[in-house]
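Why should sequence recovery work at all? Because a backbone constrains its sequence more than one might expect. Tight turns favour small or flexible residues, buried strands favour hydrophobic ones, and helices have their own preferences. The token representation captures these environments compactly. In the example below, the structure is given first.
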């Protein structure tokens, strides 16, 4: 019997796992995360051009916790007006139904970053924390550019790693994967983009958000001269990763930075003046927003 080096075994294990997942995906046998029903309903209703705010409110008020969080957000430093509000209808009037659609999706997203096994749940929690940080930075970056909607950038930051979830869900039933985090990380790197696209397609998300999860790992992407949502998330992710090994990229070679107006000579984007805003976005996503 030929001796197999541990690294060779690792490569074989990764290839086998990736092949199995992609085959299951192609045959509709792979379990994909599902968006909570209230978010699906809100997105469907808001996408109808004939929808009224009253129809949206009717769905939201069926979820007391969600209603309370929306009212709290409408009174938060990010969106507060001259007078406090105390009901969903007033929150919709202040925020608008398109913003509420993305807010509802963001608020319920945390529910799918959960697992039954402690080790996988820990990884999902870390993934959620990373995603909220990228979302908050993306929100601030998009707010600096007139052509972007900050709430879409926020949602893009939240979902950019969504393709990792089916892999972690499958890993719960594959003990040898859980025991080798390096192998698991390599599998996530290979598969998270195509799986993320499959998830968002199944949720009927718009193409610009699908592109975020499908293309955010390609730091050299440069499909057009104008910046897009993927560029915003790429830059937000770079900023979020500062200090980590994976952040040691040559910023001169990343088109997204220049397209968003940043000099390639910088190694960090100065967001000190936006720290309060970043903290508030994260607090909203964690249900801790202050009034």
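From this structural description, the recovered sequence reads:
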């Amino acid at each position: 019997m030929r001796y197999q080096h541990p690294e060779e075994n690792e490569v074989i294990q990764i290839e086998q796992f990736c092949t199995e997942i992609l085959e299951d995906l192609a045959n509709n046998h792979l379990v994909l995360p599902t968006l909570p029903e209230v978010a699906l309903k809100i997105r469907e209703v808001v996408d109808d051009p004939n929808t009224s705010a009253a129809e949206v409110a009717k769905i939201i008020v069926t979820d007391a916790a969600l209603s309370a969080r929306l009212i709290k957000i409408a009174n938060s430093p990010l969106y507060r007006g001259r007078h406090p509000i105390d009901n969903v209808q007033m929150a919709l009037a202040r925020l608008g139904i398109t913003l509420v659609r993305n807010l509802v999706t963001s608020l319920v997203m945390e529910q799918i970053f959960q697992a039954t096994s402690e080790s996988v749940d820990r990884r999902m929690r870390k993934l959620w924390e990373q995603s909220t940080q990228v979302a908050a930075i993306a929100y601030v970056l998009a707010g600096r550019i007139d052509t972007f909607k900050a709430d879409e950038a926020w949602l893009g930051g939240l979902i950019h790693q969504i393709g990792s979830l089916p892999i972690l869900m499958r890993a719960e039933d594959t003990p040898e994967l859980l025991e080798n985090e390096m192998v698991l990380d390599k599998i996530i790197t290979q598969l998270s983009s195509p799986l993320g696209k499959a998830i968002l397609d199944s949720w009927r998300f718009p193409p610009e958000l699908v592109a975020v999860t499908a293309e955010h790992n390609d730091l050299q992407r440069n499909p057009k001269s104008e910046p897009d949502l993927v560029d915003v998330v790429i830059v937000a992710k770079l900023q979020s990763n500062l200090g980590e090994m994976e952040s040691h990229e040559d910023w001169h070679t990343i088109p997204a930075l220049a397209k968003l107006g940043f000099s390639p000579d910088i190694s960090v984007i100065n967001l000190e003046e936006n720290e309060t805003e970043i903290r508030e976005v994260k607090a909203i996503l964690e249900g801790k927003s202050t009034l």
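A few observations help interpret the result. The chain has two domains: 27-112, 113-291.
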